[in-house]
Amino acid sequence: MPHPLPVRVAVLVSGGGTNLQALLDALHDSPLARVARVISSRADAGALARARRASVPTAVLRDPSDPAELLAALGDAQLVVLAGYLKLVPTPVVSRFRDRMINIHPALLPDFGGPGMYGQHVHEAVLASGATESGATVHIVDEVFDRGKIIAQEKVRIEPGDTPDTLAARVLEAEHRLLTRVVLELARRIG
Ligand code: GRF
Fold first, then answer.
1. Is 105 annotated in the active site?
2. What beta strand segments (E) does 86-182 contain?
3. What range defines the domain where residue 79 resides?
4. Total domain count for the chain?
5. Which residue among 24, 118, 141 is best mutated to probe the pocket of ligand 1, counting the most ligand atoms within 8 A of its Cβ?
6. Do the domain assignments include residue 44?
């Protein structure tokens, strides 16, 4: 039985790309999946340099709210991963990739999600709430920020004296582990 080809993964980014880097490292030479393209909402995203270093084709969106442009950039991707992507995905794109588009969020959804809940804002809100734990969530992307079906979560402790920065660093490590695991599991099902 010949090996099926690796699942083509497209990664949407807006920032530094540490989640992208975790995927590039984990999928390098994997028979299951490969990062086939990286699409950024910003020309200055550090994630683009990471993609180029890994010889992965890149694209920068002129208008992230334009479904036609995003669909063209996604091309023949079979799985779409939002990794630090800060824009709402237009509905026609959500429909085209129904149940094949996931997002990584730096908190335990459904808490601490929704518009404006990204980066440090999330960790500040979690600490202010007095919560004793936080973590990362991977969920299906639908038409509303951070609302899609939760696929998996990884919890982290909140330590006395934690600041938004120390909590962010601990959650980010959980994100990298969780995202890699979920992408490989989905690739096994899609492949
Ligand atoms: C981080 O806050 C991460 O929690 C969220 O997006 C931000 C940047 O991630 N997913 P990355 O380093 O660009 O992957």
1. yes
2. 101-105, 133-140, 150-157
3. 7-110+137-153+175-190
4. 1
5. 118
6. yes
- Is residue 97 over pLDDT 90? yes
Residues 6 or more apart whose CB falls under 8 angstroms from that of 129 comprise 111, 112
Rounded to 10°, the helix 120-129/164-190 angle is: 110
Residues within 6 Å of ligand 1 by CB: 15-20, 47, 83-84, 104, 106, 119, 172, 175
Is pLDDT above 80 for 36?
Answer: yes
Longest dimension (CA), the chain: 55
**Residue 118 lies inside a defined structural domain of this protein:** no
Residue 141 lies in a domain: yes
Instruction: Give tens-digit pLDDT for 161-182.
Output: 999 999 999 999 999 999 999 9
User: Could you tell me the distance, in angstroms and rounded to a whole number, from the CA of residue 4 to the centre of ligand 1?
Assistant: 31
Domain with 183 in it: what CATH number?
Answer: 3.40.50.170
Q: How far is the CA of 33 from the centre of ligand 1 (A)?
A: 21
Q: Is residue 159 part of a domain?
A: no
Whether 101 has a pLDDT exceeding 80, the answer reads yes
